[in-house]
Amino acid sequence: MNTVVKTIFLSALLGLSACATDDVSPQDLSERELYDRAQQSLDDMRFDTAVKRFQLLEARFPFGPYAEQAQLEIIYAHLRSIEPEAAIAAADRFIRLHPQSPNLDYAYYMKGLANYTEGDGFLDQFMPTDMTERDPGSALKAFEDFRQLLYRFPDSSYAPDARARMVYLRNRLARYEINVANYYFKRKAYVAAANRGRYVVENYSQTPAVADGLAVMIQAYMLLGLDDLAENSLKVLASNHPKHPSLDKKGRFIPKFTLEDEEGSTINKLTLGLFDRADPPKFDNRPDYMIR
């Protein structure tokens, strides 16, 4: 019984000792001690606590040897806690305060990652999501962040990953334009659809969406009665993408929608468009990598 009591007593003393250590006022800690505590919180995945401790370190020792590193760790902690906007703000602050820092490439890279992930929902981790249907704002910003990184630091250790992400983003942005063109087909806005297709061809060359961009142009020009433009676009599509699903074996375009479809069948007219309605054109021929 005495042994048990002694054990409990010693355990209580050790617990009180640990509490006493944790209860030391931050004002009494050195810069290194503050940094170590913040880093421990980061290692324990207590990201909110880590941010607060790194911010305290920076406030107490703004010109100390750990201040700059603390700012970088804050960017990382915000990103790990799925707070992309806070991570972007922290990265922008670092870039503004330390334009000559040897770690500037890291700040640009992390800012790009934050924009890259912004808009991703919790469920996106567990189910396929068509990212090309999302608003492209964050994707455009991420692309620019990575572009800045490659332009300013082409030999950075983060450059290969940034370059790979830019390829994905470019494909995603091109496909977004095709989705918009498909929407315009639904609205019978054929000029707008043709313009979107041409934009993909002119601005996103070497992406898989270019073939669909040409098909969009052909279909829209046919519906607009612009046969010469449709024929020119068809020549380019047949020459560069002869196996595109919109072409038959002889390289002729297979229209998904005609002027007769637009006018509607007799049944469609009699039912005021309720029945026998022709589906509008939709072009979506892409590899699986666009879905994640």
Automatic annotation (TrEMBL):
GO biological process, one term: protein insertion into membrane
GO CC, alphabetical: Bam protein complex
InterPro entries per record: BamD, BamD-like, TPR-like_helical_dom_sf
Membrane topology, from the record: Lipid-anchor
Domain of life: Bacteria
Role of this protein: Part of the outer membrane protein assembly complex, which is involved in assembly and insertion of beta-barrel proteins into the outer membrane.
UniProt name for this protein: Outer membrane protein assembly factor BamD
Protein's organism: Dasania phycosphaerae
Lineage: Bacteria, Pseudomonadati, Pseudomonadota, Gammaproteobacteria, Cellvibrionales
